[in-house]
Write a structure and sequence with these properties.
mainly beta, 13-stranded antiparallel β-sheet, two-stranded antiparallel sheet, about 65% strand, globular
């Protein structure tokens, strides 16, 4: 479950439930030569209480990218990722900040993942950067570190559950934030989505975030907890992630040391979606 969250942009047709009584095996399949394209979009509202004054920030983002399978090595898939369309806007009391999409669009990197969706390498994405003004340069790597949902390592039937862990490290030239999540997935049933016979999975996540932010010559320490829910759909026969919708909430504190000696409560609510695009 990604935390860098995601608005209805792709046409979708959800049909009646698919009858399925036997256990199914879920595994990603990326045959060479068969490209895929996705769109993710979302928004987050963040609220801080600074000495009795409420400060709100609204972030919106959307991203379209293509995946080109490059083959299988040591039971891991290598996928060539191309950024097709990128947009972020952040609205705060200081105004609206939107980076130049030309610094990201058209850039490429390789992603390595297992047949169960565990991503082991997106390091190339760290070099794809954009400028967020006063908060410095950021990169797109965090948005891909947990893009694919984790699949079970055994056949499952309706009602079965499995667990997974997610770690996301979001680095910029002014901050480093680590998110650690414990996820529980439940096979909730089966549906036909966009012509694919899919497993429908409902997931919950709980975890923590912690990090350091350098701002205005001051070091800020961030600590908090996260909880979220996600419903995602996986095409059983084709081995393709088709669709996902998620919501999450965060509560924590930002602590500023000397000379400010401030502790600032912070909360955030986010929602996002992922869609497989027709090509």
């Amino acid at each position: 479950m990604a935390c860098l969250g995601l608005a209805g942009l792709a046409a979708q047709q959800t049909g009646a439930s698919v009858a399925q009584d036997k256990p199914v095996t879920l595994a990603y399949k990326f045959p060479e030569g068969k490209a895929l394209a996705y769109r993710t979009s979302g928004n987050e509202t963040q609220n801080m209480d600074v000495m009795g004054q409420s400060i709100s920030t609204l972030s919106r983002n959307s991203l379209e990218f293509s995946l080109k399978p490059k083959g299988l090595k040591d039971n891991n898939f290598t996928l060539g990722v191309t950024i097709d369309a990128f947009k972020i806007s952040v609205e705060s009391p200081q105004g609206t900040t939107s980076p130049d999409p030309a610094t990201v669009n058209g850039k490429t990197f390789d992603m390595v993942l297992s047949g169960l969706g565990k991503i082991s390498d997106v390091s190339g994405a760290s070099s794809i950067q954009y400028n967020m003004g006063e908060t410095g340069k950021r990169n797109i790597a965090a948005g891909f570190q947990a893009f694919f949902p984790d699949l079970p390592d055994h056949p499952v039937k309706t009602g079965d559950t499995w667990q997974s862990d997610t770690t996301i490290v979001d680095k910029s030239d002014t901050s480093e934030i680590k998110i650690a999540l414990k996820n529980e997935h439940k096979l909730d049933g089966f549906e036909t989505v966009d012509g694919y016979e899919c497993a429908r999975v409902k997931a919950t996540a709980k975890g923590t975030l912690a990090g350091v932010i350098e701002q205005g010559g001051m070091t800020l320490n961030l600590e908090g907890t996260i909880q979220g829910t996600q419903t995602w759909y996986f095409a059983i026969k084709e081995g393709i992630y088709v669709k996902g919708d998620e919501k999450s909430s965060t509560a924590g504190t930002v602590t500023a040391g000397s000379p400010a000696n401030l502790t600032i409560p912070i909360t955030a609510e986010s929602q996002g979606e992922t869609r497989l695009l027709k090509k």
